Amino acid sequence: MKKLTKVLSITAAAAMAASMMASVSVFADDVFTIGAIGPITGAAAAYGTSVMNGAQIAVEEINAAGGINGYQVELLTADDTHDAELAVNAYNDLKDQGMQLLLGTVTSAPCIAVEGEAANDNMFLLTPSGTAVDCIFGDNAFRVCFSDPAQGTASAQYIGEHGLATKIAIIYDSSDPYSAGITEYFTAEAANQGLEIVSSEAFSDNRTDFSAQLNKAKEGGAELVFLPIYYQEAALILQQAASMDFAPAFFGCDGMDGILGVENFDTSLAEGLMMLTPFTPNAEDEMTQNFVKTYEEKFDGLVPIQFGADAYDGIYAMKAALEDAGATADMSASEICDAMKASMGNITITGLTGEISWDPATGEPNKEPKAVVIQNGEYQPM
Amino acid sequence: MNTDIVKKIKNRRLRSKLITYLIVIVFYVVVQILINTGNLSSLLTGLLVPICVYVIAAVSLNLVVGISGELSLGHAGFMCVGAYTSAFLSNVVGSALPETLRFILAILTGAVFAGLFGLLIGIPVLRLKGDYLAIVTLAFGEIIKNLMNVVYVGIDSKGLHVSTTSAMDLHLEPTGKQIIKGALGISGTPKNSNFTIGVILILLTLFIVQNLIDSRSGRAVMAARDNRIAAESIGIPVTKFKLLAFAVSAALAGVAGVLYSHNLATLNTKKFDYNTSILVLVFVVLGGIGNIRGSMIAAVILTALPEMLRFLSNYRMLIYAIVLIVMMLFNWAPAAREWRERVLSRLPFGRRKAVGKEEV
Amino acid sequence: MSFLTYLKDGISLGSVYAIIALGYTMVYGIAKMLNFAHGDVIMVGAYVVLMMITRAGLHPLLAVLIAMAACTVLGMTIEMVAYRPLRKAGSPLAVLITAIGVSYLLQNIALLMFGADGKTFINVVSLPSLSLFDGGLVISGTTIVTILANIIIMICLTLFVKKTKQGRAMQAVSEDRDAAQLMGINVNGTISLTFAIGSALAAIAGVLLCSAYPVVTPYTGAMPGIKAFVAAVFGGIGSIPGAMLGGILLGVIEILGRAYISSQVADAIVFGVLIIVLLVKPSGLFGKNVQEKV
Q1: Which member of A80, A143, B293, C168 has the greatest number of CB atoms within 10 A?
Q2: How do residues C164-179 score in pLDDT, each as one tens digit?
Q3: Do C120 and A49 lie within an 8 Å CB cutoff?
Q4: Which member of B230, B278, B333 has the closest CB to residue C89?
Q5: pTM for this one?
Q6: φ, ψ for residue A303 (rounded to 5)?
């Protein structure tokens, strides 16, 4: 045992020494260094990977077109495995590598933790997809996507105003702040819209069997099932609903986007599925088509999901704000952050997820929610 | 003669204990020097508090796994209790108390509640043995996590409101504040944890654990571990002592949870699933079951290692897994041990083989 | 009628748990170790079948056979490289931690090879569904096959263990490894064979799991693996009928708990029932309660 301890101690000392070396690196001051944090491994890896890919495309485009204010952009990425503690580690690591602006983090809970650090450091934070209210509590933080309240409320309003249904069932992920948050605001607004919630059923660790939740919805006579969840589980729910001859309308939020890209998924099951999402990969406009084409070419034929689009817009928002502020690459992270706080309110960008401007007081984006419906295996605007 | 041997053993134990404290203090001083001279990267500085969290968790779990010889897979559940109760307290109290006093109160709250849970769970569970105990502790950890996910608590001028359905059902006044938000957990906990407090808590943990091991109860528990029936036959109330060890271990895990929750701006139950329990168990086993110092070192290395491997990007966790397997084989496989003994004994500074020496 | 539907869903889910638990319990009974990587072998089996069907265009049945062969080799390799050197390490915990390492390893290899995106599984069962009570109860072909497979596997395993030479060797090793060795039984070979069978079962479980719940990700096996572990303990670890009953009970409790009590705390209910059962019967439903002697 003694020797084991010794061996371990030596290893520890070596690791420490090695890391100390690593920390002494020279920061280049002729490029803007943007850090991106998200889950690249772990169960939420699909979202993080998409964000990294979308950001990479934007950065490469910007660099090819001459950079920002004449400076090239460097993108650093770090993995947080969808864990708050590891996200803070990733943040510190990127800081060591000279990060000046942060795109991230991708998921809500880690984002709140990182924002706690970033607000202290006065580091500019733009989360592409962290939907929880607290993700952007500091004045240094902004977001590209809609917040939970915005999505929940907008969904209930949309269903109520368009008379899609009156009896609603909800199936949500109680262990996921994103899903639980939307459900909370949806339920509150549903009462105002005269919608009746016939069942509101959760799942958490079991992500494979949804028969009980679907049966509850069926028994309650639900005309519409609201699914504020991600597309992987949604794909299973649609398959299981079909196998039990339950065919209500389904309505999802931005996490639903990507369902048509699930490999081997029978897309006929998604016929008539409605969702509020600002991005659809088969929109007609040239910008989306170019983005999707580049994305598919670069990443083995993967179809981009909304996370990638949010990240792409996020990088271009940073570009617009940096240009508005006339920032230079030799500024410190804190100086850039101060400049960005003023400039984010001045800019309006037309991105993949629509025309976006920001409220500098709250950090929330102003953009139109778009509802789409799946018809003939493709997204159609409603 | 006899007393002489006893004295020798006592001295050796005391020395071993003091060395453990010394290692912690030296580590602290070295890190402080590095920080003050600006030689420590942000990554490592940020890692210091998590390292303290895992060291406390590992040392306290070693009390159950190493000393009582019981396999517990629910340690994260106790960390969860400590983290939630203390974060709740800090958020309720807010700025009504000075920061230091509030944090001390938070630590005590976390420890007491986690300890109580340990006691409550320990009473029925400790009758089970081996893998059955493992599965029941795992189950309790998951239950605690699962139930915390549906708790909503808010506060307004009328006092506390509790609901298990949704935030709306709290019926808070407009000025009221939601504190525990179901699956969203608690956010906005003040960042009171720092490295100094972490090290103080490590020393405190070591003090409690090492003294418990050396106490009459501790020796009884170890006797029971080695031979339950023999221990019972000479009248040692095994279950009572095991329960004590289990509750103390839970309370210390609660302290680790307090440190964790006051280090991050957000807290939810996802962190406290069986994976974290297993992670802590890995520290204990890799460092040597029953070896307090070893589990501390293993906790430091295995917390820092994945971060040090960040440059490997996608291959990071793959390499981590391989390193874990190789380290386990290297440390535990009889063949590897023999080989190590041979190599080390040939080295000039290699110590003589200590026969039958008990390592605690 | 809705109760019957829930019951059917529970049995269907439980049957999948049961098949995984059978592999778990066999390995535990003989090697006395919790093979945490068992769930990930399931995932590997599912990926192999999927790749054989979609990429190589093989017949589903052939694909399943290939997956079984692949998992058998994988299981035996894991046992040989990672577990065998630790068998005499003195603590069952050492090999438990190594198994966790193997689990991480398999997950991360799958992540690198197949990516994090879930892949929809092709249902390999082409049986029509069965409609009872004028459509009040619909039992899908997959469910029928799963339940049948479960029963067949259980019978075959029981016969194998009771009637064949290798099976009796397994029993002997499980009872007392050292004595078995003295009796001339090849202990390493027997344990290797156990891993081979357990892993082949894992491949079948993977196919059935992913046919019923058709998405494969690198983490597909983790949670069912844990649930199967619970099921195996529930039924009395080491017992073949126990694993089967434990699995089905677990599935039924989970679905009924979700339907009639609360979907938010369904897992807490499952674990709660488990704890109560173990407190009443500390070695599981079918477990042997052996008081150790001095």
Answers
A1: A80
A2: 988 888 888 888 888 8
A3: no
A4: B333
A5: 0.86
A6: -90, 130
